[in-house]
Amino acid sequence: MNTIQTIKLSQVVSDFLKEEKKLFINGEFVSSTDGKTFHTLNPANNEVLADIHEASEKDIDRAVQAAKNAFENGPWSTMTPLERGDLIYKLALLIEEHKQYIAEIDSLDNGKPMSELLENDLPNAIGQFKYFSGWASKLVGQHIPVNGNFLNYTRHEPIGVVGQIIPWNFPFMMAAWKIAPALATGCTVVLKPAEQTPLSALYLAKLIQEAGFPKGVINIVNGHGENTGSALVKHPSVDKIAFTGSTEVGKIIMKEAANTMKRVTLELGGKSPNIVLDDANVEKAANGVFAGIMYNQGEVCSAGSRAYVHSSIYDEFMERLVSLTKDVKLGSGLQSGNTMGSLVSQEQKDQVMNYIELGKAEGAKLICGGKALDQGCFVEPTIFADVKDDMRISKEEIFGPVLVVSKVESEQEALERANNSAYGLGAGIWTQNITRAHNMANRLKSGSVWINCYNATDPASPFGGYKNSGFGREMGSYALENYTEVKSIWVSLD
Ligand code: NAI
Ligand code: MG
């Protein structure tokens, strides 16, 4: 019996796809000045979904001027914190109302399963706006007891115009992670989505209009990184760049930002370890390690892509792990019942397949998977064993459904090998012993540590990297620091 049912696209989404995909600048949808457009594809079948207006340097200047004007002179600049919070909350409610449509758009554009969008991406995105709407009225400075007869206090002021550049792996959710805290602090935004997944941010622009944000507070400009993204990073009136994407581009942005002394926060790649100790609940650990790498087709910056498994439980663990791959239903994200969708693009599929070939050539043992489907950008869940730390598949970010597993003999060995990485975004520990778990958590060099779980996130809890995984923390109260300057004010009381 075929249990796979094709989901019919909502009428709203079919209509949206037919609309012209312009730039959203100063509260209006406008054409790109040079008339340039680019295609966005459905990676499940590589067909064109829509033509997108590409923002030129001139368009970026328009968007930045609009954001600057909104920051300095517009109604946003004089709104009370509670009013600002209300608007952010209103946007959350509108997203909630439209979540089915947004999920369909992201599934089409990115390839990921609807179930993941409806259970994770959309609730998480809505949560960001709800959570940060509350912070708008709770940004407080300090009153500091200084020497001498002074009143000294600090103000946490919005940085100004923020350029935000996001990747394609969680298109809508990444937009929410970036926009929500920036708005809470009172900044204004120019957001550049990834060229592979430009659609859902344009749908968000419609909701921003409907929510009634003042003109220019949020501008959305699509385009390629080297043109549109780079113009945003160079623009002298952009006060800060918040970037999520590859470490390679993060470095380019950091160097370029130095010229105008922009503030920068970077959320970059990873090669996160998942450690399974001898006293772990093996069933739970296998499920957790599996989901930790295979979720979202492995296209997750914090994916647990390296597993270190104690020799005493290794065989049972591997048996369970491999059997989980057999349950995966690989296919269009828009068909219910499919548990793994397509990678985002042919380019990404090629990258992942090249790493799989490389792994074989390096002498790692291919345990299961390893193949791509002929049509679309689908790659099977793949597991390599007998992986050595100096192999490239163990050191480099693959960004696909590929796990490398190594057998370890001790906790110390696991810890050393886990930390032996250029990256430091996430890490997992599987053990029943809380003392071991906490000692190890303290010694792992990564921005998040998950004990007997993996990839848990919440709008209230910070997320970000050590080492080559970047710096700055998204979410939680920590994210507010990304968008504020601290001013110290002195008043003589003599
Ligand atoms: P990328 O880093 O090139 O793209 C991310 C964003 O940066 C996109 O919006 C892109 O347009 C923009 N961008 C690219 N070059 C730019 C430049 N010079 N100036 C300003 N903006 C620029 O990532 P890409 O090429 O899509 O993926 C390559 C690899 O990067 C992936 O295979 C994966 O390993 C990693 N990656 C990591 C992500 C993460 O969440 N940490 C997300 C996406 C990719
Ligand atoms: Mg790129």
Q: Which key terms come to mind for this protein?
A:
binds 1,4-dihydronicotinamide adenine dinucleotide, 494 residues, binds magnesium ion, 24 strands, single chain, 2 domains, 6-stranded mixed β-sheet, 7-stranded mixed β-sheet, alpha/beta, Aldehyde Dehydrogenase, Chain A, domain 1, Aldehyde Dehydrogenase, Chain A, domain 2
Overall pLDDT confidence: 97
CATH superfamily of the largest domain, by name, is Aldehyde Dehydrogenase, Chain A, domain 1
In this entry the ligands are:
1,4-dihydronicotinamide adenine dinucleotide, magnesium ion
What quaternary form is this?
single chain
Q: Sheet bearing the most strands, described? A: 7 strands, mixed
Widest sheet: strand ordering: 16-17-18-14-13-20-21
State the separation between the terminal residues, measured CA to CA. Answer: 86 Å
Number of β-strand runs = 24
Description:
With 494 residues, the chain is of the alpha/beta class. The chain has two domains: 278 residues, Aldehyde Dehydrogenase, Chain A, domain 1; 186 residues, Aldehyde Dehydrogenase, Chain A, domain 2 (3-Layer(aba) Sandwich), CATH 3.40.309. Helices cover 39% and strands 21% of the residues. The chain has 16 helices and 24 strands. Strands 16-17-18-14-13-20-21 form a seven-stranded mixed beta sheet, with helices on both faces. Helix 10 links the parallel strand 13 and strand 14. Helix 2 packs parallel to helix 8 and helix 3 packs antiparallel against helix 5. 53% of the residues are buried. Bound molecules: 1,4-dihydronicotinamide adenine dinucleotide (NAI) and magnesium ion. The site of 1,4-dihydronicotinamide adenine dinucleotide (NAI) has 27 residues, from helix 8, helix 9 and helix 12. The site of 1,4-dihydronicotinamide adenine dinucleotide has 27 residues, from helix 8, helix 9 and helix 12.
